Amino acid sequence: MTSRILHKKLTDLRQQRKKGFAVLVDPDKVSLQQISILAQKCNEAKVDFLFMGGSLMVSQHMDDCIKHFKSLSDIPVILFPGSPAQVSRYADALFYLSLISGRNPELLIGAHVVSAPMVKSSGLEVISTGYIVVDGGAPTTVSYMSHSMPVPHDKDDIAMCTAMAGEMQGKHILYMDAGSGAKRPISESMIQRVAANTEIPLIVGGGITDPEKAYLNCKAGADVIVVGNAIEKDINLIKEISEAVHQSSIKV
Asked: Tens of pLDDT along 153-204?
C-alpha cells in the first residue's frame, strides 16, 4: 500500500474549509533554468502543490524537471498525466484520472488497465480522480485527444450529476477543468452546484487568469485552484493568485 499523505492533505483542506493553490507545469514548455525561477517564486508565494504533466509529451525530460524542482523546494509534486507514459517515480503522487465526463472507454478504464502494473511498481501515492472537462469556449487538446465532448458551460446539473456519480463510484477527488488557455473559465454557479452536492475535495482549473477569479472560485466551493497557462505568460501571477486563494480561507 502506498501512503495517503497528499490525499489526506487535500481532504483536510475540504474539511477545514481552507483553500489550496497549485501551479501546473507542462514539462514540454519549460527548461531547467525556468524550473529554478519557478521554484523560487513558488516557495516565496507559499504554493501548496506543483502539478506536472500535459496532454502530450513531446520532450523527454519530465524526470529531470521534477528532480530539479524538488532539489529547490519542499512543495509536493503531483503528476497530472495525459497518458500512461507520463509516470515518474520522482514525483510524490499521481492523479489516476478517469474522464468521467466523457464516453471514451479508453480514458474511463482502458488506459488504466495498461498502466496499472507500472503505476503500482512506481511507489507513487495514487489518488483516484474523477476528471470532468467543461467547455471553456475554445477547442482543447484534452477534448481532441479524448474524442469526447466536454460538459456544456451552462449545464450545471450535468456537472453536478457527473460529480455525484464519480463520488459514489469511490473517486478520492474531483477535478473540473476548462482546459489550458480556456477563453471562458468554469462558472461560479457550476462550482457551487458541484461543491454543495459532493463531499470529496474539488479541484478547479482552466482559464483562471487573475486573482479575483481565483478568489471567487474558492468562495464558490473550489478547494484547490490550478493555474498553468496564465503563469507561463506572467510568472509574477503566482504570488498574486496564491495570496487571493489563501485569503479566501479567512473568515470575514
From this structure: 999 999 999 999 999 999 999 999 998 878 899 999 999 999 999 999 999 9
Average pLDDT, the chain: 93
Residues 150 and 145: their CA atoms lie apart, in Å, by: 12
Count other C-beta atoms under 10 Å from residue 79's C-beta. Answer: 26
Q: Which three cell numbers stand for residue 58?
A: 513531446
- pLDDT surpassing 50 at residue 1: no
Q: CATH top-level class for 5-245? A: alpha beta
Domain ranges (residues) in the chain: 5-245
Helix 237-247 / helix 211-220 crossing angle, nearest 10 deg: 30
Please state, in angstroms and rounded to a whole number, the distance separating the CA atoms of residues 114 and 11.
Answer: 28
Residue range 1-27: average pLDDT? 92
* pLDDT tens digit sequence for 95-121: 999 999 998 888 889 999 989 999 999
Model confidence, pTM: 0.95
